[in-house]
């Protein structure tokens, strides 16, 4: 195959006719496939069915002398705090255990920051003239949405192969209106990048002008390798403490992609002072999150080592799917020079950069042929990708044969939209 | 026994010496008993152990074609919406199913009202000069706390045997700064009063000046009779709709005192327009609450009729405890004319009115003798009971022998504090 950039107009026209015919052929199949969201496959959910019957009798429901079934223990069961501390490398006293959605706890932190302020806030953020959030791009649409919902100005920070552009981050935090940055530090969403040690150290060393600047460290994929061994990752909380910024970071993790996406547990990890501050606040809104499910999880997952064993089961299901994506793109698209993409070894996404100016069109072509992708632009604040290039591919949910069909549609759409662009059609 | 009011000073002094000796005797026993919170007893939790194993295999985890284990279904599983609609007498489309704590959803409604406004708000409540909440007293401390946390002015409304003083409520809602009233309409906390049909109708017919005035209808004890048959209760949502106020009410309920206090499910019921408004908002903060636990609950509780059967089991455990409270007070205190109390047939509390000016002292005497009560004043906004009289007794948790001992301490403390007051000690 010849790259499109080396083809004559005549050759491009021939290509266009052939690709269009192929596209029409695919469209006629009336497909209904979805690669929009990082949903675990049914096979993965079946992998952890043992969790359903971990607690069977009343006497199973105790963590020491604490009855998980009753009120109390606002910050979670001690065994659940210890579990998360083991997974994240922090201390149990730095853990507040939550319910099914870590996003909900992140949103609570932002909501309370706006209504009441964080630990070191001179005033609630809603009383500030303006509040700015730094947003690595491409990034996670739900992070952006929360910032947008509370009226923060979202500032894009380009991602590099080692994490967000830290020169820019260090520059921006000199502005006292910059109050927050949201990151997914390991297997970033969607790029699948692992922040380098240097990047992480520069995060811990930040010297923000705002006394209440906060890093939302959404460690959603901390143990989610699907290829190769577990990659150790440092504890950001102690690093911030050592750098003299003990209260600057809020880390989040969950079992949404370890056990059940619709019935897991999550945690917030932060300095003891922050945990105390938020325990006082959470104490107003609830008695505790679901402790029965916390106990069920700890009994099933046991500890980090055993959880990593379970993750190998997930990896065995995930890896062939990412291989399908990679194989299709390498075979169909690479020789044409019309797109590039990341090749992650963990997480849930492939970040695809289509020919600039064509992402929306690729999304539309896929949609019309029955394949749903995450909306073009969704990986940028305000859904505005300045290059109209990035698409997030989520291959976890569909079975391999469906995924192959979906990738055929995607590759065809990438070609068609590139040819349309090159031929001004 | 003679009422204290009919005794001479000499007789009172004799009583004081005897009661003090009894108190010192009790204090010397080094008790450690708790009647502070409406916690279910371990026996009650054991009653519903069947829920632990309702879901055992992957194929158990589906509500129709919906996999409860995966992401999605923000407003809850259809079967859980139908379950709550059955219990509350509303429509499934008027139900948003939540996690373990209905208080958390109430707090979310208030938080979003302040940050963004409700459906008919001209502006977010944080932009209003002042926001006022009406608080029936005595009432639930956690309701007051949320209002206080968001800076609302809390206005006490006296309770009557048929519910809050509706003349006052109707008068107050003419003030456009009055935005909210919080009520527990059946077996009110702490009085155990069931609002009369007339009171409920007057709620539905309210003509508030604020277009976004909201009733928080915390139906926490909707099926929680412990004596006598289930008392039917009208659907406030359709009543508000019929009165031309479809969006004025937010109803809440939970299984905290049906299954597990530390691992139940809850719901918010409201007009379809309100459910849509909050579905859009909740969609920003989460993917869904724990749907696996929703399914586990629906499979176990089945429907309202079956849930009422389960409630009879709770009643059999609760009734003897309320009888202990009632017996002690009738025997030890009634003849002395120093206190009065409610005699509820459901809910979790006995509301006790000690001699005015002595509630704090009774609490302290109990505390020093090893019996913890809900803080005196807690049942009033800002923890200020103008009469220093009301105490909330929560007899559900301690086993009967402990409860008898605790009631002995309480009765002795009621006498001692009354005698101190009468004798100016």
Q: If you had to describe this structure to a student in words, what would you say it looks like?
A:
The structure is a homodimer of 425-residue chains. Chain A is an alpha/beta fold. Chain A has two domains: 4-45 and 308-422, Aspartate Aminotransferase, domain 1 (Alpha-Beta Complex); 63-302, Aspartate Aminotransferase, domain 2 (3-Layer(aba) Sandwich). Chain A is built from 13 helices and 15 strands. Chain A has an eight-stranded mixed beta sheet with strand order 4-11-10-9-8-5-6-7, with helices on both faces. In chain A, strands 12-13-15 form a three-stranded antiparallel beta sheet, with helices on one face. Chain A has a two-stranded parallel ribbon with strand order 1-14. The radius of gyration of chain A is 23 Å and the shape is globular. Chains A and B meet through helix 2, helix 4, helix 5, helix 9 and helix 10 of A and helix 2, helix 4, helix 5, helix 9 and helix 10 of B.
What is the residue-mean pLDDT of chain A, rounded to a whole number?
97
Secondary structure tally: strands of chain A: 15
From the spread of the alpha carbons, the general shape of chain A counts as globular
Distance between the termini of chain A: 22 Å
Oligomer kind = homodimer
| Secondary-structure content class of chain A | alpha/beta
CATH class of the largest domain in chain A: Alpha Beta
* Reported CATH architecture of the largest domain in chain A: 3-Layer(aba) Sandwich
Number of helices, counting only DSSP H or I runs of 4 residues or more of chain A: 13
| Total number of domains of chain A | 2
Largest interface: A-B, 56 and 56 residues
